[in-house]
């Protein structure tokens, strides 16, 4: 089990995935802060920023992470990778803000880290298939 984890971390596509994830998280966070500053509720701001940043993530993962051609089929399957991501990050955000009373601007950064391994595995399956 540990050898498999080490192989995954050493995998170049995983490293590129983490880089794309950092870019995507920054994009998401900028949009989240923008929507919050316009008076949005944190869950609505989170959802809107999440959807917009997911489109950018699709193209970055196709071209940079997995070096594959984006297709309509992959584009419409790609949101499936984010069902787990969205569910885990939204639940984490709720826990952090409403139950643990974290700052609404800090909590999304923490909540974004938790679903990374799940999203990598699912996106790899969808985007690398021909």
From TrEMBL:
Biological-process GO terms, alphabetical: polysaccharide biosynthetic process
Membrane topology classification: Multi-pass membrane protein
GO cellular component: plasma membrane
Main location: membrane
Keywords: Membrane, Transmembrane, Transmembrane helix
Annotated TM spans: 14-35, 41-66, 78-99, 105-127
GtrA/DPMS transmembrane domain boundaries: 16-126
Subcellular location per the Swiss-Prot or TrEMBL entry: Membrane
Record keyword Transmembrane present: yes
Family (UniProt): Belongs to the GtrA family.
Name the UniProt record assigns to this protein: GtrA family protein
Taxonomic placement: Bacteria, Bacillati, Bacillota, Bacilli, Bacillales
């Amino acid at each position: 089990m540990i050898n498999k984890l080490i192989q995954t971390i050493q995998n170049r596509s995983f490293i590129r995935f983490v880089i794309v994830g950092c870019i995507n998280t920054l994009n998401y966070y900028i949009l989240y802060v923008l929507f919050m500053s316009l008076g949005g509720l944190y869950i609505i701001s989170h959802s809107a920023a999440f959807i917009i940043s997911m489109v950018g993530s699709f193209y970055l993962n196709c071209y940079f992470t997995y070096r594959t051609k984006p297709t309509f089929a992959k584009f419409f399957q790609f949101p499936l990778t984010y069902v787990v991501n969205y569910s885990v990050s939204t639940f984490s955000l709720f826990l952090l803000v409403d139950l643990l009373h974290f700052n609404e601007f800090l909590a999304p950064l923490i909540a974004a880290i938790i679903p990374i391994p799940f999203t990598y595995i699912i996106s790899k399956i969808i985007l690398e298939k021909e």
